[in-house]
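Model the whole thing, not chain by chain.
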Amino acid sequence: MYAQMIKSTGEGVKSLDDMEPEERAFQERINAGGKIEPKDWMPEGYRKNLIRQIGQHAHSEIVGQLPEGNWITRAPTLERKAILLAKVQDEAGHGLYLYCAAETLGVTRDQMTRDLLSGKMKYSSIFNYPTLTWADMGAVGWLVDGAAIMNQVPLQRTSYGPYARAMVRICKEESFHQRQGFDIMMKMAKGTEAQRKMAQDALNRFWYPSLMMFGPSDAESVHSAQSMAWKIKMNSNDELRQKFVDQTAPQAEYLGLTVPDENLKFNEETGHYEFSEPDWDEFFDVLKGNGPCNTERLEARNRAWDEGRWVREGLLAHAEKKRKTAIAAE
Amino acid sequence: MSSPESSPYSDTDAAPHGKARATEWPLWEIFIRGQHGLSHRHVGSLHAADAEGAIKNARDVYTRRNEGVSIWAVPASAIAASSPEEKGALYEPANDKVYRHPTFFDIPDEVGAM
């Protein structure tokens, strides 16, 4: 997902009876569907875990602008260009909603940015794949945003108030993203033979990386069990992946494209699709920094931060000067 | 692009909410009036060097789809908030005054709407 492999306390989930009164009240509130707000008492593990998760999600939105930004100047029509520009601007907005939610937990945005730039904090593995053709803009919207929505819709009910509210805003805007992606795929899949081939190629390259977004099976993970007890993770990785395949496979069929998986077939009995697992060695390798674009992405973010420094400092200096002038005039 | 020698972005630990370090852009809480006639509602926060910048940034971050007709930006550090621990004591005086609600009074049906 946009947040992958988030570690919790590493201990098992405590039973209510093993908790101190404060923690017990906290957990009971979550169990009852209540929200935790910034000034409420919370266990340190919950706070730290959320900072990691929301921060990673925010970084993914920001780094996610790069593969799409790659095509703004080369969009095939002015309309497509304007739409893509609006979408990339939304991604920046999503990053900012999320940084603002994380900041209520006692970390600043600049601190999180520094941790991204130094490689200490991660972003989703998916953005380390290149966008080679215009059809990739379609595949990214349709598959990558589609996979993100699977995770983000349930997170609107997450226990941490500021995070849940950020997700509500994000989900409203994400469906525009997925539709614009599918619209590009439709145009290309029903276009010339060359366009159809390009669309198929984009599906071939983005299918497995999209399945990887949900992370490896976490049925046995203590981290996931704790996150689910805290309601900062709402579904297991396998559950969401299955839901994604069930939704996406018929859409590929509608487009007349072939999902690059010989084992993909609908199981009448279960009502679900059967499919092949992605290559998890590749996933861990990309997370470690060895994906096709890891270096390029981090370099681009570092460059933006360094080259924007004079703007940040300049505006701050100007604000200070205005403040002093105003005081002197009084 | 050159910038002054000493880095204002040195590594420091996290700061409490709204207490931006002197070298970071301060945090602003943003309130938006959705439509004429409704009050401003808190939508989130953002960073800006000054009030003017905060309103411009709020326009880009929170009103990309015509969500608002008016924006308030308030320095996050200027907001006073009640504390959750005081919830009981703070609201208790209202709890036993059920007669403040109109449903406390039974009005006969024949009297009509009241």
